[in-house]
Amino acid sequence: MITLGEGDTPLLPAPRLSGRLGVEVFLKWEGANPTGSFKDRGMALAVSRALERGATGVVCASTGNTAASCAAYAARAGMRAVVVVSAGAVARGKLAQARALGAEVVQVAGTFTEAFRKADELAESRDLVVVNSTNPDRIEGQSSAAREVVEQLGRVPDILALPYGGGGNTVAYAVGFGERLPRFVLGEAESRADTFASAIRIVEPVHRLEVGGVLKRSGGTCVPLSERQLEEAWRLIARDEGVFCEPASAAGVAAVAASVTAAGQTVVCVLTGHGLKDPDATGRLAA
Question: How far apart, in whole angstroms, are the C-alpha atoms of residue 113 and residue 221?
Answer without folding.
Answer: 24
